[in-house]
Specification:
The chain is an alpha+beta fold. It has one domain. The protein is built from three helices and five strands. Strands 1-2-3-4-5 form a five-stranded antiparallel sheet, with helices on one face. A hairpin with a 2-residue loop joins β3 and β4. α1 packs across α2. The N and C termini lie far apart (about 115 Å).
């Protein structure tokens, strides 16, 4: 009795292999996509924080007079360096607000709010700023938001120039 050698793959073997490869590719594609989203979100958040630091450094700049320090003034001053566009000024009863767009193609919306200075001994030595930066991240329906706050006070150097505010 002669035996015929069995060589090659059967249709069942090929089907199982294709299913395994398809599942592997789907899982790896999902993993790579999630890594891409996470790294994109991290980059966008880091960029937003860098813009926030630049804006707060301008608020703390000693050359900017405390009495004229407003959100609109800060954003206008930075508009050349940071390419801030569409700067708008809004004033409420106890707040001053400036809004604008920053970044490549205006990808980040910024809102800088300043509450009216606190009065101490008939001098207003404290201004509180709140910066809100919103931006979109791919595949997320809701925009991400970064909020930062800073207080600016009159320094001894400036107080002599601005007494009686």
């Amino acid at each position: 009795m002669k035996r015929k050698e069995e060589r090659g793959f059967t249709t069942v073997d090929l089907s199982i292999a294709m299913i395994v490869v398809t599942i592997f590719v789907a899982i790896m594609g999902s993993v790579f996509y999630n890594v891409y989203l996470s790294s994109t979100e991290a980059k966008r958040t880091a960029t937003a924080l860098n813009y926030g630091v630049d804006i707060f450094e301008a608020i703390g700049d000693e050359s900017l007079m405390f009495s004229s320090l407003t959100p609109y003034e800060v954003l206008t001053r930075l508009s050349g360096n940071l390419k801030i566009e569409e700067i708008k000024k809004i004033e409420n009863d106890n707040e001053k607000i400036a809004t604008g767009r920053i970044g490549e193609k205006g990808a980040y919306n910024i809102k800088l709010t300043m509450t009216e200075p606190v009065t101490v001994d008939e001098v207003k030595p404290i201004k509180q700023f709140k910066l809100t930066i919103t931006y979109d991240v791919a595949a997320k329906k809701e925009p991400e938001t970064v909020e930062l706050e800073r207080i600016r006070t009159i320094t001894n150097k400036l107080k002599t120039d601005e007494e009686g505010l």
